[in-house]
Q: What sequence folds into this?
């Protein structure tokens, strides 16, 4: 409960800091300090120190899984602020408000990761989505940003409608919004319950951009200001995945035979569309949007398997994916040209930045010694132990091989092509944060237990 | 009245909303159709809430079963209002730039 209250309070503080403080540097310092405080109170809660003891009628419960994910999300958000908060100034004049919205989104994230009632799930998803609509459209004069924002808003609200219908039908069948009561049904599940579950599956697949509900993702990620795309594609997507797996584990776990084939098909379609389309992209930003779809396909494997390994693996996956993608986007924001050719000769200009970017790309592609490899490994292992779906594992491995192509195109452009890719205003602090982040990605790949032990102790 | 009537009415309203979202090209009308979907859900939730209450009241007259459904409706209303304010702001922002609210103009990102 610590992080939930503190993040909401910090959001309000940031809004007022925009009125009181004129200097952008002090606003930024407050945001970074707030994020560190958020991280600390969350870790304290994992150690059993709770500041706000509120009786939420069991609608929200912070267990290990939720707290560990919150820690990962706050750590990623802290790194994100350190790397990219300077670039938010270029988007528009409302600097403090952007940061306030980010804190509100984090508040929604703590709700979605810990819900026990569908009411909290709905509120959490909406608290995440509504600020994101604003952030997507924050570049007000830019038509692309306008378009992305309107598209995201209309489709997001539409999927919320589907989700609410699903919740209403489930409520009609079971008479409760609590996940532990929904799972209790006797005999064959009623048609209302199954229909509600399918609608919930579709709407959540929509929010995590799984095919065939992915069509908004490339446009929105491409049109949004790059700083906010970075946030959307990593922390937010990870949080919705945690909610997704929690919902289907706790509320519909006993119906697994009914939805497993459907999820397997969605997973295979997501992997296929994400990877194959990413191959044909010319812009790195759009390639990363498709890559986020294909990574979502891998994360769907954990939903498909839904065992202890899958949950551990998802935790590792979201951290490795968030760290690596935040790093790549932080470098991309500094580039003038977002096409692959824009990276030509980058290694000659900025050897350190090119090396860290390479590590992030290797992690996304799943090369051993990086976090991405082990997380993909865990996913495949969990799918194998779920049994009977060997074709899905083989297909996922093939698609991972395809993904190597488009990630390595960036590396090839950086190291083996002539050109003068010139990143703007790179400070030493930025460089060293990136180095620390890439060390973190490597650390996850070599000692994954550093993260996973927290799950149990 | 049997619960089926309420379910059919809500599903019909919901379907009208979905068809509207998929076929209409004016952003405001799409938006109204989304609101229609949300209100269909509200109606369904209230009906189910009453149903669960009556079912529980047969054995225990002082039961509070079913109140949570009506509570949910209030949350949907609040969230829908928040969504309307943001959504209309986005539509106004778009209108200022291209002087139209037709979603057919939304094709710049395709290429």
A:
């Amino acid at each position: 409960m610590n992080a939930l209250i503190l993040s909401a309070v910090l959001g309000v503080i940031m809004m007022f800091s925009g009125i009181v403080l004129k200097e952008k540097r002090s606003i930024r310092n407050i945001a970074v300090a707030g994020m560190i405080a958020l991280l600390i109170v969350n870790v304290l809660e994992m150690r059993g120190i709770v500041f706000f003891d509120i009786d939420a009628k069991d609608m929200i419960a912070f267990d290990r899984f939720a707290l560990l994910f919150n820690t990962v999300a706050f750590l990623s958000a802290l790194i994100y602020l350190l790397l990219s908060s300077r670039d938010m100034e270029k988007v528009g004049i409302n600097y403090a408000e952007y940061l306030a919205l980010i804190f509100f989104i984090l508040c929604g994230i703590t709700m979605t990761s810990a819900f026990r009632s569908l009411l909290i799930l709905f509120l959490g998803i909406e608290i995440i989505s509504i600020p994101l609509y604003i952030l997507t459209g924050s570049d007000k004069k830019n038509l692309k940003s306008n378009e992305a924002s309107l598209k995201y808003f209309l489709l997001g609200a539409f999927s919320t409608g589907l989700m609410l219908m699903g919740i209403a039908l489930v409520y009609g069948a079971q008479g409760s919004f609590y996940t532990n009561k929904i799972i209790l049904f006797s005999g064959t599940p009623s048609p209302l319950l199954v229909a509600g579950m399918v609608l919930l599956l579709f709407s959540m697949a929509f929010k995590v951009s799984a095919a065939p509900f992915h069509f908004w993702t490339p446009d929105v990620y491409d049109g949004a200001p790059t700083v906010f795309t970075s946030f959307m594609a990593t922390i937010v997507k990870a949080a919705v995945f945690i909610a997704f797996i929690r919902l289907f584990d706790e509320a519909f776990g006993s119906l697994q035979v009914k939805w497993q084939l459907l999820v397997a098909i969605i997973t295979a379609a997501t992997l296929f569309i994400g990877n194959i389309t990413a191959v044909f992209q010319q812009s790195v930003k759009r390639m990363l949007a498709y890559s986020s779809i294909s990574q979502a396909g891998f994360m769907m494997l954990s939903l498909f398997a839904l065992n202890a390994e899958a949950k551990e693996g998802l935790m590792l996956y979201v951290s490795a994916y968030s760290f690596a993608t935040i790093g790549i986007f932080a470098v991309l924001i500094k580039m003038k040209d977002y096409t692959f050719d824009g990276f030509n000769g980058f290694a000659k200009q900025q050897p350190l930045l090119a090396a860290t970017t390479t590590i992030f790309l290797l992690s996304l592609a799943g090369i051993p010694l990086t976090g991405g490899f082990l997380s993909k490994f865990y996913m495949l292992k969990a799918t194998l132990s779920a049994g009977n779906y060997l074709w899905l594992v083989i297909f996922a491995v093939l698609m991972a091989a395809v993904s190597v192509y488009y990630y390595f195109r960036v590396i090839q452009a950086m190291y083996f092509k002539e050109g003068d890719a010139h990143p703007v205003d790179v400070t030493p602090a930025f460089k060293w944060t990136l180095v620390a982040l890439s060390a973190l990605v490597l650390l996850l790949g070599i000692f994954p237990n550093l993260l996973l032990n927290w799950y149990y102790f | 009245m049997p619960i089926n009537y309420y379910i059919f009415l809500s599903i019909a309203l919901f379907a009208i909303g979905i068809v509207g979202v998929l076929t209409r090209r004016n952003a405001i009308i799409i938006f109204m159709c989304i609101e229609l979907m949300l209100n269909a859900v509200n109606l369904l939730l209230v009906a189910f809430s009453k149903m669960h209450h009556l079912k529980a009241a047969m054995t225990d007259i002082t039961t509070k079963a079913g109140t949570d459904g009506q509570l949910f409706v209030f949350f949907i209303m609040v969230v829908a209002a928040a969504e309307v304010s943001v959504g209309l702001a986005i539509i106004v922002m778009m209108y200022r730039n291209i002087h139209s609210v037709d979603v057919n103009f939304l094709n710049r990102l395709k290429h």
Summary: Chain A has two domains: 1-152+221-248, 255-457. The mean pLDDT of chain A is 92. Residues 1-152+221-248 of chain A form one domain.
